[in-house]
Structure formats: C-alpha cells, structure tokens
C-alpha cells in the first residue's frame, strides 16, 4: 500500500500554513524554470500554438454570443425592475440606483462565470490535444528535478491500446465528478438566501479540483496510478494542492493569458509532484529501481 502523505499530525499541522502559501507559488517557479531552460521551449511552443487555435474557436463560438446574451438579459431585468419601481411611492425612488448597481453586479458575476467556463473548456481540449508534448515536457522536468524516471513498460500494441483506454476512462471519471457535484451545485441557485453564494463557491472548488487533476496527471499517469488514488493524493496534499488548483484555475480563466497558462501549469504540476508527492509516496520504491536516464536535447 502506498504511503500516506502528511502521516504525522504534528508535522502536517506545522506545514499547513506554509503549504497554503506554497501552492500559489508553483506557476511562478515554473515560469522561472522554463525561462532558464531553453531545451524545454520546444515542448512549450507547439502546445501554445494549439492553444491559440483552440482559444480562437472557443471565444468566437462562446464568448461573444454569450456577452450579447448577457447584455440582453441584464437590460430586460433592468426594464422590469424600473417598471416595478415606477409603481412604488416617491420616497422609494432611491431603489432606481440600487437597480443600476444590481445590474452591474449581475453583469460582472455572469461574465466572470463565463470566463471560468471558457477557461475550463480550454484546459480540457488543450491538455488532450497537447498531451504528447506535455508528457515529454513533464518527463524532462522530472528527470531534471529528480535525476531519474520510473521504469517504463514495453511499447507494443497492447500497451498503446491500454494507454488510450486509461485516457478515455480518466475523462469519463472527471465527467462523473462534474455531474455528481455540478448538478446539485446548480440546483443550489434556486435556494433563497445563500444558495447562489454556496453554488459559486462550490463551483470554484469543483473547477479547481478538476484542474488540479489535469495538471498533476502527467507524472501520476507515468506510474499508472488509478483515478481514486489521484484524488486521494490531492486530498492528502491539502492545503497546498487546493491553492495550487485555485491559482491554475485563475490563470486559465484570464483571456489571452490562458493561451500560455496550460504549459505553465503542466510544468508547475510536475514541480509540485517532485517537491510534495514523490519524496514521500514514490521515492522509497523508485530510488533503487529506476534506470539511469539522460535528458534529451
């Protein structure tokens, strides 16, 4: 059985505040490492071009039509509220200003949610299409960081088909989580009071978890870890994995920046794995068994 991370409660309690901050820093560490290591640039530039093409398609098909729909929705609600206020006594006329403020707040919330959705879709398509380069990028990073890679299974038709099957199963498992938690969170919007706030917070947490799975997947998949263990690793490395997922979700949700963010976050995820997962969970059995490998140029 794999060793559990943070098995010492006192050590876990001491490292929690540091982990909370450390999770935010990994994209910056990744940028510095890529900038200082030109041999990695090839594995970054090609996926960036793919992300650019995917991003153009998503923004043309989703962003601009949705922005027009948001304008229509907010304008319609403003007309309805103004009509309602017009029928009220004069001393309630100040509600007209509140209607304007509510319209802008609703617009900001809807646009922010739209950017999160587009960023999330960009990650899903970008990671799948760029996986050959991201896999190689992650390998070179792990080799650079740890000086070794896990023993590889022989390459044959059966192993290739097995990898395809695992990749499809991984996507279906993520979809299952999205439906299992996303639908109840969506229904929370109909609960008066704090329903919408809880739904928004839950949606961000769900998105951060899925993004964390995507960006930690390359080194874990090299070791053929099952999906449930990947989830358990994310749980075991909290709060660092939580803040790592949040900052990556934020980066992939910012227009234009998200075209560069995916390879950056893949790099950050591999660094996170090498620093916070590999030493406790995989190093003991891999240190003496992994073959010596050289970094490709």
Total E-strand runs: 0
Count of folded domains:
1
Strand content bin: under 5%
- Distance between the terminal alpha carbons, to the nearest Å? 36 Å
Write the layout of secondary structure elements.
Layout: H1 9-36, H2 41-86, H3 95-129, H4 131-146, H5 157-187, H6 195-222, H7 227-236, H8 240-251, H9 258-281, H10 283-286
Helix pairs in contact: 1-8, 1-9, 2-3, 2-4, 2-9, 4-9, 5-6, 6-8, 6-9, 8-9
Explain how this protein is built.
The chain has 297 residues and is mainly alpha-helical. Helices cover 79% and strands 0% of the residues. Helix 1 packs across helix 9, helix 5 runs antiparallel to helix 6 and helix 8 runs antiparallel to helix 9.
Give a brief outline of the structure.
The protein is mainly alpha-helical. The protein has 10 helices and no strands. The two termini are 36 Å apart.
For the structure shown, list the relevant keywords.
10 helices; elongated; mainly alpha
């Amino acid at each position: 059985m794999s060793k559990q991370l943070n098995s010492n409660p006192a050590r876990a309690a001491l490292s929690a505040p540091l982990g909370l901050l450390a999770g935010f820093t990994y994209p910056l560490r990744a940028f510095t490492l890529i900038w200082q290591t030109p041999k990695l640039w090839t594995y970054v530039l090609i996926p960036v071009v793919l992300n650019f093409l995917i991003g153009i398609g998503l923004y043309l098909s989703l962003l601009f039509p949705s922005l027009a729909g948001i304008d229509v929705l907010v304008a319609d609600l403003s007309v309805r509220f103004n009509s309602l206020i017009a029928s009220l006594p004069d001393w309630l006329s100040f509600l007209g200003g509140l209607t304007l403020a509510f319209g802008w707040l609703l617009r900001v919330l809807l646009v922010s949610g739209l950017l999160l959705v587009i960023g999330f879709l960009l990650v899903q398509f970008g990671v799948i299409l760029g996986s050959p380069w991201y896999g190689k990028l992650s390998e070179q990073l792990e080799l650079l960081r740890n000086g070794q890679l896990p023993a590889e299974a022989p390459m044959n038709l059966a192993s290739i088909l097995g990898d395809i099957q695992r990749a499809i199963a991984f996507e279906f498992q993520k979809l299952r989580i999205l439906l299992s938690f996303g639908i109840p969170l969506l229904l929370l919007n109909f609960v008066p009071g704090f329903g919408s706030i809880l739904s928004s917070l839950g949606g961000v947490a769900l998105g951060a978890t899925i993004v964390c799975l995507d960006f930690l997947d390359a080194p874990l998949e090299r070791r053929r870890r099952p999906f449930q263990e990947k989830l358990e690793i994310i749980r075991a490395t909290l709060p660092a994995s939580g803040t790592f997922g949040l900052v990556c979700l934020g980066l992939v949700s910012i227009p234009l920046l998200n075209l560069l963010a995916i390879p950056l976050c893949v790099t950050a995820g591999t660094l996170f794995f090498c620093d916070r997962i590999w030493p406790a969970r995989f190093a003991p059995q891999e240190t003496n068994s992994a073959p010596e490998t050289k970094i490709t140029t």
